[in-house]
């Protein structure tokens, strides 16, 4: 496939950030899916803090305003729905909105977690725990979680 087709196919695995796929397109062919994941991860690691923060900010809050307005990507909608975040009780929604606000105020970007395989309580626990981190630690955590999301998304694309 052409570079444009490659970016079209894989540009969405990093939420609203096709620049990652654009930067690895010239490295094709990849020996394996793991090699592709590693190349994309390397691009993000080398991007610099400002672009990394922009990448984190491209992700929606968990059950946040984008979810309420139906503006999340299909992948994010599916991932959050799979964790039950589309079925929160009113009390859980208030709690999650409070945690989202505290987290965003402290770090300047939304809480990101690869929620596949987790339930609501585990997500609340992770948010509460990660609020105790410093900015640099939390940026690394957010990027690691994004890489886990990307790994799931690539697996889904490859397996069809």
TrEMBL record:
Keywords assigned by UniProt? Answer: Decarboxylase, Lyase, Purine metabolism
Concerning PANTHER family, the annotation shows: 2-OXO-4-HYDROXY-4-CARBOXY-5-UREIDOIMIDAZOLINE DECARBOXYLASE-RELATED
Enzyme class at the top of the EC tree: lyase
Could you tell me which residue ranges the Oxo-4-hydroxy-4-carboxy-5-ureidoimidazoline decarboxylase domain spans? 1-155
Annotated InterPro entries: OHCU_decarboxylase, OHCU_decarboxylase-1, OHCU_decarboxylase_sf
The answer on whether this UniProt entry bears the keyword Lyase reads yes
Superkingdom of the source species: Bacteria
Q: Where is this region: Disordered?
A: 67-86
Q: Which reaction does it catalyse?
A: 5-hydroxy-2-oxo-4-ureido-2,5-dihydro-1H-imidazole-5-carboxylate + H(+) = (S)-allantoin + CO2
Enzyme Commission number: 4.1.1.97
Which GO BP terms, alphabetically?
allantoin metabolic process; purine nucleobase metabolic process; urate catabolic process
Pathway the protein takes part in: Purine metabolism; urate degradation; (S)-allantoin from urate: step 3/3
Q: Which residues cross the membrane?
A: none
| Official protein name in the record | 2-oxo-4-hydroxy-4-carboxy-5-ureidoimidazoline decarboxylase
Molecular function GO labels: 2-oxo-4-hydroxy-4-carboxy-5-ureidoimidazoline decarboxylase activity
């Amino acid at each position: 496939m052409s570079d444009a087709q490659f970016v079209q196919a894989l540009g969405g695995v990093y939420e609203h950030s096709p620049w990652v796929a654009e930067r690895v397109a010239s490295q094709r062919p990849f020996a394996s899916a793991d090699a592709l994941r590693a190349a994309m991860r390397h691009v993000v690691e080398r991007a610099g803090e400002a672009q990394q923060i922009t990448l984190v900010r491209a992700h929606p809050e968990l059950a946040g305003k984008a979810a309420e307005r139906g503006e999340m990507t299909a992948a994010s909608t599916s991932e959050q729905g799979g964790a039950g975040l589309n079925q929160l009780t009113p009390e859980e929604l208030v709690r999650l909105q409070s945690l989202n606000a505290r987290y965003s105020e402290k770090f300047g970007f939304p809480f990101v977690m690869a929620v596949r395989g987790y339930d609501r309580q585990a997500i609340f626990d992770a948010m509460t725990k990660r609020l105790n981190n410093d900015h640099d630690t939390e940026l690394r955590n957010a990027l690691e979680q994004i890489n886990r999301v990307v790994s799931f998304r690539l697996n889904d694309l490859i397996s069809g």
